[in-house]
Amino acid sequence: MIIRHKDLSEPKSHEITPESVYLKRRELMMLGGLASLFGVLPGWAHAINSVGEDASRPRWLKDQVAKAKEVKSGADESLTPYQDVTGYNNFYEFGTGKTDPADNAHTLQTDPWTVTVAGEVEKPGDYPLETLLEGLTLEERIYRLRCVEAWSMVIPWIGVPLAAILKKVQPTSKAKYVAFTSLADPEQMPGVKSPFTGIDWPYREGLRLDEAMHPLTLMAVGLYGRTLPNQNGAPFRLVVPWKYGFKSIKSIVRIELTESEPATTWNMLAPGEYGFYANVNPEVDHPRWSQSRERRLPNSFFDPNWVPTRMFNGYEQVASLYKGMDLKRNY
Ligand SMILES: Nc1nc2c(c(=O)[nH]1)N[C@H]1C(S)=C(S)[C@@H](COP(=O)(O)O)O[C@H]1N2
Ligand SMILES: [Mo]
């Protein structure tokens, strides 16, 4: 069954991938199972099988991920291969190099995982991840991810709208923002120990409540039909497809509803370069580089694969959230 969200689907004709190019999750799993019996695997199925991150995940999460339903979400472009999605990452808790997270994040312990819900909510508390997701149907959504560094990917996430989780914990009438905090454990995360990032740990992010409630805003627990690899923010991370990637905070341990705008990591570090809103906007350049185009991965030095950057990363249905706001000032 396909759940259709009308306001989410507006694929552009040039972006449509022929159905045959996109191997469906279940077909892949069957194929993977069959093929491994005979010792032949398509390249990326092999890559997934060889990662093995699923082995350390709890049964309940694997089962829930396996039952995810496809939702058309407007980015039916060619998917960025699994190897790039899981091998080229920003996750400074594990180092600042693009391959550091894939090399180092195996030390992250993701089960059991507890999320503290605090602040302006009727039902605060320490929630096991299983309880937060209980009774919710996971959705598979293909989103573009546009990093502020001017590269981008197309990723098939698995998750639930943040709105469904907020509904469980019931924001009070005073709640105006949602503040998120990542795990910051120097024992598990070598980057947290390192003096080189200048980041005041833990990594923090935030959204206005109406942004948080928007149906595009996802809490992801998987990608490519599997639970999230550690380097992509296991076991539970935010995905806000119309904002620069740094808003999509990983490995979340705390969600706090607040009355005032929360402090956010990149804004604390360089307020002139990274704003609270961070909406993808080709007309507002980063002080040190243009934001009018992006390198779509996979690419290479000789074939950078530049594509034009689109307002709100192509998710123009969010424009009404910012009516009357000067997006040059609120970058
Ligand atoms: N906790 C935490 N979350 C984070 C980051 C980080 O360094 N730490 N990097 C952000 C940036 S800059 C990007 S582009 C995305 C990258 O997500 P991906 O590695 O899954 O593609 O994660 C974001 N979330
Ligand atoms: Mo980023």
Automatic annotation (TrEMBL):
Residues the entry annotates as binding Mo-molybdopterin: 89, 92-93, 147, 182, 232, 237, 248-250
MF GO annotations: metal ion binding; molybdopterin cofactor binding; oxidoreductase activity, acting on a sulfur group of donors, quinone or similar compound as acceptor
InterPro entries, per the entry: MsrP, OxRdtase_Mopterin-bd_dom, OxRdtase_Mopterin-bd_sf
EC number: 1.8.5.-
Gene3D superfamilies linked: Oxidoreductase, molybdopterin-binding domain
Keywords: Metal-binding, Molybdenum, Oxidoreductase, Signal
Domain Oxidoreductase molybdopterin-binding: 108-266
Cofactor(s) essential for the protein: Mo-molybdopterin
Cofactor binding, per record: Binds 1 Mo-molybdopterin (Mo-MPT) cofactor per subunit.
GO biological process: protein repair
Source taxon at top rank: Bacteria
Reaction it catalyzes: L-methionyl-[protein] + a quinone + H2O = L-methionyl-(R)-S-oxide-[protein] + a quinol; L-methionyl-[protein] + a quinone + H2O = L-methionyl-(S)-S-oxide-[protein] + a quinol
Signal peptide stretch: none
Subunit-level organization: Heterodimer of a catalytic subunit (MsrP) and a heme-binding subunit (MsrQ).
Family from the record: Belongs to the MsrP family.
Function: Part of the MsrPQ system that repairs oxidized periplasmic proteins containing methionine sulfoxide residues (Met-O), using respiratory chain electrons. Thus protects these proteins from oxidative-stress damage caused by reactive species of oxygen and chlorine generated by the host defense mechanisms. MsrPQ is essential for the maintenance of envelope integrity under bleach stress, rescuing a wide series of structurally unrelated periplasmic proteins from methionine oxidation.
Protein name: Protein-methionine-sulfoxide reductase catalytic subunit MsrP
